[in-house]
Amino acid sequence: MENLYSKAKALEFEGISTFIHTGSYASPCVTFTGDIAKDLILIDKVIGVKIALTDNRGSYVSKEELIKILSKIRIGGIVSKKGGVLHMHMGGLSEKFDNVFKVIKYYEFPVHYFSPTHCARTKDLFNEALKFQKMGGNIDITSGGSKFAPLHEVVAYSLENGLNLERLTMSSDGNGSVPKFKENGELVGYGCASCASNLEVLQALVRNKILNIEDTLALMSKNVAKYLNLSQKGEIKVGNDADLCVFDEELNLYDVIAKGEFCVKDEKVVKKAFSSKFKEI
After folding, report:
1. 72-107: per-residue pLDDT in tens?
2. From the DSSP assignment, how many helices (H) and strands (E) are in the chain?
3. Residues with catalytic function
């Protein structure tokens, strides 16, 4: 965990904004301080907690364990003024959102603390995610893997079924491990999620006239910033960080600017992580 924090601080020094979810696939959650609430309060980078649900690589968390984790997040989020979310890796097991719905119903826990990702892993899971969103929740779809259909088709399907675009986000899972299984569940290898997949889905959504470019970009910018309580991110306005992407007419990525400095210029990478500037510390 300490190494993760060091890398986040190094990237921040380079000019790239970084944030961390504490936790792990399993429960009890792995933390920096030994306590979820303390991590949110004392560790500047920590904005939420990650855990795996409905996944055979997790620990099959019960609704009682889930509410204890959420209560810690709520306390830590209130004290730190970060908000706090439970970032839920949604797997492919049959229970899907069962325990989430039970916690919301029986414990009357506010829905905005839940942050499910990989929601388009299967069609059945996605239909439950749409049900969750209609309860006021935010959902995330993953462009780099874990999807039952090409994501532009998933978005088109969701729009036909009552999706609220303002509560939808898209992440790449870039460089994340992608295990490969046989039908019997036997692990046969690993792949790696692409870091370019968000751009590819952006192009597909606009070119297929499913969304305009403003609504598509919001899935990766404004919607994310609003949900994670990142007040200086997500929109171009006075006082915000100067994070900009420049595209050509074919929606190819031309420039990337982070906090007012070029990271990509004229389609060429001009800044890389852990450069000589960092080594001088």
Report:
1. 999 999 999 999 999 999 998 999 999 999 999 999
2. 10, 12
3. 173
